[in-house]
Automatic annotation (TrEMBL):
This is Transcriptional regulator, AraC family with amidase-like domain. SMART domains: HTH_ARAC. It comes from the Bacteria. Keywords: Transcription, Transcription regulation. The keyword Transcription regulation applies.
């Protein structure tokens, strides 16, 4: 059976550079999906550190104070996310530009979140790259930095540069990265955990026709876990033929509708095992299995242990 995540690899190391006035909405929409991916995968796919240019704490625009794990000068990793949000025009000082240019040699990828694109551009780190920024600033951004190929998109990935247009787009971006790096089905699980059906949008911000059908099918499945429907009926309610749904799900999620449906039911079983004291037989019924033994076999195959072993741990 196809797994929903790629083979285990070292956790990606992410630095999140914060400034006074950062948006904690943007920060939460960046970090919480990463945390959820770790939880669902049951091991660390991502590790992150909060950084500042100095060692001092910073406060968000709404007063949330964050004590950094370290300074930018001492940090290195796979990705640096630059997150200034408000007051960004006053932050592009020569020391900040110098620090960012130095960090570009220590981090594999640089990401400008919200208005972080402006600081990267001030440092000359977006010249020749496609990039976006919060759309309220896009006109000024394109005028100020003519060597940057400004785009009105939710997020843009261009080689070793990522730019994102705002807090809600940050959630979409992180879902995209999770799906790209660890399988689209894990991104779907994270999205559903946050009750954000259909959130994994394209770079331009709109889901393609196939994605709409897949999202509808996922919604039908989610609404019918206790009494599973035949795949043909799922496809009908999603407005697709069974063959079309099979093709789109294989392309987007790397699994058949039957495999996806089974995983959603087993996810529910895992949640009930860990969060309730229901008997295994009752959990089996709630997750669409008439036979507790069949559910246990499927559970062990998917998660590597029995429901009772997971509960005991």
């Amino acid at each position: 059976m196809q797994r929903w995540t790629k083979p285990r690899a070292a956790a990606q190391q992410i630095g999140i550079l914060l400034f006074d006035g950062f948006s904690n909405h943007c920060l939460a929409n960046t970090v919480e999906p990463l945390r959820a991916a770790n939880t669902l995968a049951r091991h660390s796919l991502y590790e992150w550190r909060f950084l500042t240019c100095a060692a001092d704490p910073v406060s968000s625009s709404s007063g949330l104070q964050v004590h950094p794990h370290g300074t930018l000068a001492e940090a290195a990793g796979d990705m640096l996310m630059v997150m200034p949000s408000y007051g960004f025009r006053q932050l592009g000082t020569w020391p900040v530009q110098t620090a960012l240019r130095a960090a570009a040699r220590r981090f594999g990828v640089l990401a400008g979140m919200d208005t972080g694109s402006w600081l990267l551009a001030e440092a000359g780190l977006l010249d020749g790259y496609r990039a976006t920024i919060h759309w309220e600033e896009l006109t000024g951004f394109s005028e100020r930095f003519p060597d940057v190929l400004a785009r009105r998109e939710r997020f843009v990935i261009d080689r070793r540069r990522i730019t994102c247009s705002g807090a809600m787009a940050a959630f979409d971006l992180v879902l995209h990265l999770i799906g790209r790096d660890h399988g689209q089905a894990l991104a779907v699980e994270v999205s559903q955990l946050f009750m954000a059906r259909g959130s994994a949008r394209s770079h331009a911000g709109g889901a393609g026709p196939g994605s709409i059908g897949v999202n509808r099918a996922l919604a039908v499945m989610q609404d019918n876990l206790e009494e599973p429907l035949p795949v043909a009926e799922v496809a009908r309610q999603a407005g697709r033929t069974q063959k079309a749904l099979e093709t789109r799900m294989r392309a987007e999620l790397g699994a058949t509708p039957a495999q996806v449906y089974r995983r959603l039911r087993l996810n529910l079983a895992r949640k009930l095992v860990t969060e309730t004291d229901m008997a295994v037989a009752e959990i089996a019924l709630r997750s669409g299995y008439a036979d507790a033994s069949a559910m246990t076999r499927a559970f062990r195959l998917e998660f590597g242990c029995s429901p009772r072993a997971l509960r005991a741990s």
